[in-house]
Structure formats: structure tokens, C-alpha cells
Amino acid sequence: MIGLAHPPSPSRRAVIRLVCASANPDKAAEIEALLDGVAVLAPRPAGLGEVVEDACDLEGNARLKAAAVCAFAGAAAVADDTGLEVDALGGAPGVRTARYAGEGAGYADNVERLLAEMRGVAPAERTARFRTVAMVVWPDGAELVAAGAVEGLIAAEPRGIGGFGYDPVFVPAEGDGRTFAEMSDAAKHAVSHRGRAFRALALALRGCGRGDSNPHTPKGTGT
Fold first, then answer.
1. What is the SS3 assignment for 62?
2. Strand 39-42 relative to strand 16-20: parallel, antiparallel, unpaired?
3. Residues 100-126 pLDDT 10s
């Protein structure tokens, strides 16, 4: 694990090049925006197959993805894993969040299953939280880890057209009653789990002292 240090002065900051472990274009775009110029992302290598996410927690799954991409590309990689924990469902879907309706399920499929399983749950009992663990892994085995969380409620039906995933049914407690999908990107990122995790990761990257850790183009990235 890389220890945090005081960030260098802005004039000395170097942009770090990272290979993105996510093949989800929505998530990749959001990650790059949240890193706020600290890192430039190369796309996930096209030749890399699916990474089995069989860890027991979010940090373990994030590490599996980042380490696999790092090894394949020969360059530092960034990954995250996010879990939605619904109290009325005993903390489910948790580590199965992205695959709640089965392997290959789409956003709408997952939301449909969630709402079906929560049918009849009283509004006050629809409490939930999103957690994200973000991680960078370097070829020498060093890593940085950051986490973020947000409390909220599950709406009775989808609302809004923005965001992705469960955004149409998640109402953050720190908001004004809108779902994430009804918010602007800026408003969502200010309170979201992923926003908090990647802002913390960006701060750690600024202070890690590694600079541009990938001077060569990662193989298979097409960049």
C-alpha cells in the first residue's frame, strides 16, 4: 500500500496514465471526470477476457479487476467495485449488484428485480446505501485504495433519465428528494459514493509521488 504524502505543488504535478478496468463506457466516462485531470485513462484492453469477480467483498473484487488489467497491459490500472445494500433485503444485492438479475443482465433488468423484491415494503423501511471501493494497482505490486458511501432510500418506481445502473431508483439522503437519475452530473457527483471514492483516490494519486508511471503505451489498448 502506498502511504499518503503532502501533495506536490500544482506546477510539479504530473498526469498519471492509467488503464481503465471497466468496459462499461458510462462508468469509464464518470471515473475520468471524477479523477479531475489527475489521470488520463486508456481503455480496457480489447483482448482481455472477463475477470471472474468472486471475492467476498468490494475491495477484493476491485483488486481482482485492477490486478488482471495491470498484468495484461503491463501498466498501472484503475478499477472500482460498487455495491448497493438494501436493508429490507438483508444487504442484498451487495457484491452481486451489477449481476443481480443474472449474468449479462442490463440496467433495467436489475432495477426490475430490485423493485419486484421490494414490493410492499413501506417507504420508511426502504433504506439503502451505495458503497464504492476504488483502486489503482501498479506492475510492481503497489496499490492505492479509497472508498466512498452514501445513504438513501429506494424509490417505488424509476424516476429520471440521467445516470446509469440503479440511479433512477436511488434517492440520496443528502439530496432534495430527487433520484440520482433526476440530478445533474455535478449534483450527483457531489454526494455520490463513486464521487467520494474517486475524489479520495485522486487526492491519494496527487500525493503518491509516482508521476507518470506508464511512459510506454500499454499493449492492447489501441492508444
1. helix
2. parallel
3. 999 888 999 999 999 999 999 999 999
Nearest by Cα to 128 from 149, 107, 159: 149
CA distance 46 to 186: 30
Region 10-207: CATH code: 3.90.950.10
CA–CA dist 164, 52 (Å, integer):
22
Catalytic residues: 81
Cα 68 from chain centre: 16
Question: What was the pLDDT predicted at 219?
Answer: 33
d(CA 189, CA 34) in angstroms, rounded, equals 8
Residue 23: is its pLDDT beyond 70?
yes
C-alpha cell at 150: 452514501
Does residue 13 surpass a pLDDT of 60?
A: no
Is the CA virtual torsion 38, 72, 80, 44 positive or negative? positive
Distances in Å between the Cα of 33 and the Cα atoms of 10, 39, 189 are 19, 10, 10
